[in-house]
Predict the structure of Sidoreflexin.
Amino acid sequence: MADTATTASAAAASAANTATDTPPFQLGKPRFQQTSFYGRFRHFLDIIDPRTLFVTERRLREAVQLLEDYKHGTLHPGVTNEQLWSAQKIKQAILHPDTNEKIFMPFRMSGYIPFGTPIVVGLLLPNQTLASTVFWQWLNQSHNACVNYANRNATKPSPASKFIQGYLGAVISAVSIAVGLNVLVQKANKFTPATRLLVQRFVPFPAVASANICNVVLMRYGELEEGIDVLDVDGNLVGSSRIAARHALLETALTRVVLPMPILVLPPIVMSMLEKTALLQARPRLLLPVQSLVCLAAFGLALPLAISLFPQMSEIETSQLEPEIARATSSRTVVYNKGL
């Protein structure tokens, strides 16, 4: 009965659409194809769209109700695919898919860039003291941990100890590497003051990248022991694979290394050139606003690019997995949820 109602709603929405590039609406499915990098890039641009931060409570209720009407086949005449896609985008940006509760604004994926950019600016400030280095690395990893927790898979209970373990591991690794590299740079007598300042600006990248890997491994170590679910082409559960878990963690770790690269490497290069311009030399007060804009642009580009590198549902050949998995299905390939 539910399938019939959904089909009826789909037909009604399709009939309401004129000639347009908007694809037919599919409840719970991505708007853009996930088999290509460009499709994934457009999909994640939708997910991180900061405009959804300004959606009112009333608009959210209307979006949720519209999707409920579609699901039960009670759509009003004239509702378009564009309206349905927009409603789904709003719901997915604000409500947790498992708990259906509102995610705190700074920890939504759509809030990651606007709330994270000030932290990036702080990480890249020149002439950092030991205290400021520790503070900004701690704040960055705390923000990352809260975003990870707020957008976690909540279908299965996860002990708080796992979250705390990952958080402490990320903070300790980030702070120790950043402080250690800063001390080495300060003691490097061969560097001129200008060179030392430039090198110091690149210190946050190895610290953040290593902390991100540490966070992923500690938070998801259980997957390496227990395996993750793999599905056949029809979406049927085949089994739980530790080999697939290793692939998933490797892909996620690579994403977490690529993500901070443009954010923490490009701004120092750009700023080192802009600081030599007559405008900024004559108006040093503009340095911080200009650096903030450069960091914002780098963040806005890096986030969708990095998380689009691998499909959310990754594919692997059955022959590469455990023998019991290969025997359990006739499919040549299976898919697994990589995670973000």
Q: What stands out?
A: The chain has two domains: 2-95, 107-337. The chain has 15 helices and four strands. Residues 160-187 form the longest helix (28 residues). The CA atoms of residues 98 and 157 lie 11 Å apart.
